[in-house]
Amino acid sequence: MKLFYWLTLAATTAYAQVTIGGPEYRLEKTGAPPAELAASVSALLAKDGHRVLSAGGKHALDIWLRAEAPKGPASAEENVSINTVPQGTLMAVVSFPEKWADRRGQTIKPGLYTMRYSLFPITGDHQGVAPQRDFFLLSPAKDDQNGAATPAFAELVGMSMKATGTPHPGVFSIWKPEASEFKAGFHKEGDHDWVLSGKIGDLPVSMILVGQADH
Length: 215
Prior knowledge:
The chain is mainly beta.
C-alpha cells in the first residue's frame, strides 16, 4: 500500500524531536483545552494537549485529542481505515496561532477549530488522494458547540467550508496504522510531511498536520 503520511498525536508522548533535512519540528505537552470551547466539547478531550514547535522554537499549533475512542457499528464503506467511528464524530480540537494550511494547501486563519471524522466521497475529483478515505474535517469552534453531535456529510462539509472560505472543506488525513507500521511519536516522512502517531483511547491513529498532498 502506498504510504500516505500523517501527523498523529500520542496522548502519552511528552516530547519528541526528529531532524531529517528540511524544517525541524518538536513536540511538547501543553495544558488543558481552551476555556472558550463549549463545555460539551471540552468534556470529551484529553486533559492535556500537545504543542508543535517549528524551527527556532516558534509556536506552530496546539492540539487536544479526544480522550476515549468513540465506537459504532462497523462500516461497510470501501477503502476505510477506521471503520468503527461514526460519521461526524468529534475527534480533536486544534488551535493555530498564525495562519496554517490544510492537506489541500488551503489557508486556514488563526483560531480554534474542531476536527470531526468523515470520508471523502468516491468521485473522480478524489482519485489518488489517498489509499484510504478517512479524514478529519475542520470547523470553527465558535460554530461547533455540541460535542455529542454527529453531523451528516453534507452538513459537516458546510460547517468546514467556514474554516477555509472556499467551496471545499478543510481536510486533514488520518488513518489507523498497521501494527507493523505503528511508531508512536512525531516523525518526518518523505520530503515534507510530519507524522505524529499515537492512540485515542485504545485506537491507534495517524494524522498529517504538516504537509500538503500532491493532488
